[in-house]
Prior knowledge:
The strands form 3 sheets. This protein has a 5-stranded antiparallel beta sheet, with helices on both faces. It has a 3-stranded antiparallel beta sheet with strand order 8-9-10. Helix 13 crosses helix 14. It is of the alpha+beta class. The protein folds into 2 domains: 47-144 and 156-205, 2-Layer Sandwich (Beta-Lactamase); 214-314, no CATH class. The protein has helices spanning 4-15, 20-23, 25-35, 52-61, 63-80, 106-112, 122-125, 129-136, 184-209, 241-247, 251-256, 260-263, 275-289, 294-301, 305-314, and strands at 48-49, 85-91, 96-100, 118-119, 140-143, 156-163, 169-177, 214-217, 227-230, 236-239. It holds the Pfam family HTH_8. InterPro entries: GAF (IPR003018), GAF-like_dom_sf (IPR029016), Homeodomain-like_sf (IPR009057), HTH_Fis (IPR002197).
Amino acid sequence: MPSIRDHTERVYRVAHQSSAAVISPVAASWRRCMTLHGLAPEEARAPWRLSDAEFRQARENAGTLIAEAAGELDRLFATVGKAGCCLLLTDGKGVALERRGAGGDDADFRGIGLWSGTVWSEASVGTNGIGTAIADERPVLIHRDQHFLSRNIGLSCATAPIRDESGRLAAAIDISTCRDDASEATLSILSQAVRDAAARIEANLFRRAFVGARIVLVPVDRAGPALLAVDRDDLVLGATRAARLWLGLDDERIADGVPASDLLEGELSAEREELPDAERAALRRALSRAKGNVSMAADLLGISRATLYRKMKRLSLN
């Protein structure tokens, strides 16, 4: 591990290069810390800490997140806790809401600031797992001297962002260790574990947001859970970020109404539905495809406009 002086000089040298943003994500983060946040690597600064009232409010605002993440935090800590690791769950601003750590390691982690109520954004402590994962909206691995502040070069962090039911960044989950023998191979394993936990928390949040809807797994090879929430008439109510990226969905398209069977090439057929439900779903799909134009929907269904109006009235479709 380099000395504090060597690390400080290296950060200044790299961050002052105009090409820092293309050298590596870490170099880009170092440059942000200096030019955007006005930080200096030699500063002996601890993370910002919320007041008790601010912390209570932050936890209240994130009540659903904390409830859906608790089980995953416990399971993950049962796996990595004995290896000298600390877990943090933060909100989208980097505020540490929940923590898991072994009592024997508490003094070390508290001294660094890995504690509930602290803020691990880049603006607070420079390049670090949580802050950089939130800034870049991607999983990151920040190993020792990749941190911006020289005081943190003994720390290694593996972090993954967590997205809400609309695909927007809402939180982060982090594994950190101060062990001298933490190798890059070990950190890679921890990084995969934290990404898997983040994906499960995202799925929990999505299912909770669409209670009563049918949850459909989109068969894609993409990071994060690719899920759709579908109503009884096969219209998409919501989609996770992975599903949105794969299927070309956004809030506007979902609000307009799009049949899931159109997206998944008919995999969600209505073969097992009762006849009235199947007919109602077919009419809604046609109207959705026609953007509400009754004449066009009738043409799609191969029936007259008058017949379509009668069916809509019978099935209470406005």
